[in-house]
Amino acid sequence: MSGEAARTYLPQGLPIPVAEADGLSAPYWHGLRQSRLLVQRCRHCATWQFGPEWICHRCHAFDPDWTEIEPHGRIFSWERVWHPSHAALRQHGPYLAVLVEIPHAGGVRMIGNLLGDPGQAVFIGAVVDGVFEHHPHPERPYSLLHWQLSSVR
Amino acid sequence: MSAKATADRTLRGRVAVVGIGETDYYRHGASPDPEFKLALKAILGACSDAGIDPRDIDGFASYSEERSEASRLAAALGTRRLRAATMQWGGGGGGCCAAVANAAASIVAGLADCVVVFRALAQGQYGRFGQTTGIDTISGEKAYLMPYGVLAPPQRFAMRVRRYMHEHGVGQEALRAIALASYHHAQANPRAVMYGKPLDAAKYDASRWIAEPFHLYDCCMENDGAAALVLVPAERAGEFRNKPAYVLGAAVGSGYCAGAIPHNSPHYASAGFETVAADLYAMAGLGPSDVGVVQCYENFTGGVVMALAEHGFFAPEEVNDYLAFDNLVAPSGRLPLNTSGGNLAECYMHGFELVLEAVRQVRGTSTSQARRNDVAMVIGGPMVTPVSNLLLGSEATL
Questions:
Q1: pTM, entire model
Q2: Could you give the C-alpha distances from B273 to B115, B160, B297, B342, B389, in angstroms and in order?
Q3: Class of domain B3-123+226-393 as given by CATH
Q4: I want to staple B384 with a disulfide (CB 3.0 to 4.6 A). Which of A24, B58, B94, B299 is the partner?
Q5: Does the ipTM surpass 0.90?
């Protein structure tokens, strides 16, 4: 497991994502653990929705379906973080976070880290592919979704 | 609804700020007083400034999960009765003007007659906003952000500003001009935490990145202290010792699906004032050219850029020309901005220090007085939701 931990983009010790007490986002987090990206799509009006809600914001049908999508998108915005806002990052150095837009799912957006050199130039509009990162935590295993430039594959 | 009823539904000219007070402002964690005591000191200061008996306060209004609760304040101060206790939803400084609006609405509706609006923070007692250590698991919006190192406010807002800079060709110099203006004004303000600590362009450029595009000086401070004001019906404004600052308008809210998480608001590259600025001007019957001086909440300089554009002071494509240091400084810049030093250099009192500074501008008692001070604007909490704004004016503007 230590080998697995060493391959994560950011050090261990950051807050672990869990679903809310009412379970709203549980299908999303469960999907990531199976290397599947699920977002909501209303079965009545076909509107895409992410993050999840109990109702479709367009037609008000309850409980939108969870739909698997291909983890491909393009960089909508980005940031290079230098200041450590958490003890786990204190000796880490800069890292990249990106906001990725997914055109084939209604343009929903999600945040992840951009894999590769943290000093790389980042371009809005660049095409990226998702990379699942599994954290086999003993009590609370979880998975994240990162991104890398399509040309890297 | 009849025309008269519609015309009645306004705050314009109905209430006035007659007293302001604040504690000394401290670095975060440096207050010798606990938070509730800071709140009491600021409130008593505002009452003293007005020349009003604190026992006559009959309402309290605040925002951003204020911990100094209205009933405890009323008991501590021995107020004769409590008639209004309003708390604005939402975090950060998004509610700093909304709290004034809620208090004003309470008075206009006849629910209360003398409402204190305030904010108090003691971060040594309760912890900082800029550090997130000590959280084991996270759910809700932050679950989509924190595991990726998008932890604290600088990281949560940098991407929004980056996108705006990309869409409109905004340069880093525009952000820098805002920081320089705040620090410039703080050098004239003995209350300011950064009084005696000037900033110049070279020092800004050499400062470390917090999260690109934010340098250190693009980010607000974190501070301890408290600030308060006293609001009364306009017809009573003449009873008190200071020149009243009348509410000309206020607005609260956000546009379509602004709260879609995580970072899914349709109009992403925005400070959130598209609808709120229009509501403010409509209530006040004024436009941007009527405004002489602006206090705009600087959580981060980039939010100020967007907020000023959304209030119509310039088009997004004009940012690089308009946001130059000379245009932003009192007394005679095109738009004197954050004349006390604001969140960057006076004190991060969650923007309430900005409301007090707008009152000073209308009174003519600022340490960096703007030449045009009849109409003063406050803009609260760019990039959060809900946001809010406020226009104050002298008697001549009624």
A1: 0.96
A2: 26, 14, 13, 19, 9
A3: alpha beta
A4: B94
A5: yes
